[in-house]
Amino acid sequence: MSRLELTIEDLGSIWLDDSVGAILQALTDEDILSNTLIIFQQDHGVETKMALYENGNRIAQFIHYPDWIPARTKYDIPVSTIDIAATLLDFAEVDESPYPMDGISWKNDILTGQNDYGRCLFFEMEKDRSVRCGCDKYLTIYEQDTAISTTYQRSIRFDYSGDLTNLFDLCGGTDAYITDSGDNQEGADLNLVDDFPVTAEDMAKVLQCHLDRTSHSADPGNITMCDLNPLTDSPTSGPVTESPTSGICADSTFFIEYEMDTSFPCDFVSGFAPCLCDDPKVSSHCSLSCGSCSEYACVDSTADFMTSEGNGNCALFSTFSPGLIQRYCEFNYVRNTCRGTCGVCN
């Protein structure tokens, strides 16, 4: 391509590429590239920029930190830009923020692949608001006026649903979030608010919770967690309701650190070695697989287990600060392991 054929967009990409390259070269020259955390992301989506639809909200994010993160690592759990501060503090080994934060660190989760898919993320543009929890997304347009709502403007231009109240299934009835640009789950004919009124009502309550706690008139330091109750562990195409308190029975997803330097997941117990359930440590860790829910559904696992930072156990976790315990107990893989410390039956 000759210089005469270059467009403004081409020049912008070249400038950006040169700038990033210069930073990488400087870090390489100082021999600190492998020990430097680099986060590279877009500032907004493309087609529906400045609107609350997925390809306006969703952005690419690339992480480079060879000393911690293996090459080609992928993390498919939704995160937010507000998580960056919490993550950087985590990498800096700051045990607890000096002030409340909405963001959640993904430092360890990107290695274990564990997190709560049902975590609710919130978005706003002008007077329009939206919340996404797992596959479900709830979007409200303040007024159907292109002069005051870019979201409504984009709905007309690109054939998205521009109703005042919208509910979308971002997985399209499957168990996986759809990223194909040609398969739009927020189209004009895909508003499910009338098909799933209970889900719409639940999502509206979550959104209102967020609006209340972030209002200029709200009490300072309000760290109320605005999430669906219960949370969902994986994508769903419709409302899934399980009580997170009474009656829940779930295996821990952490590998048990067992005798003679062996480790195994609860799936191994149920599939190949049910006799291991005779050991109270195993039956407390794998309460579902061992059929020991009546005894262990509300108490901590007594087993040692493997984490991305080494071996751990619930006894150690229970010594953490109350704020840190509360934060970690928001994740189902922690709640399903240290049930007593997290108070799942309270």
Give a quick rundown of the structure.
This protein is 29% helix and 12% strand.
Structure report:
By secondary structure, this protein is α+β, with helices and mostly antiparallel strands. It has three domains: 3-112, no CATH class; 120-213; 256-342, no CATH class. Helices cover 29% and strands 12% of the residues. The chain contains 13 helices and ten strands. The strands form four sheets. Strands 3-4-5-6 form a four-stranded antiparallel sheet, covered by helices on one side. A hairpin with a 2-residue loop joins strand 4 and strand 5. The radius of gyration is 23 Å and the shape is globular. The termini are far apart.
Highlighted features:
two-stranded antiparallel ribbon; 3 domains; globular; 13 helices; 346 residues; 4-stranded antiparallel beta sheet; alpha+beta
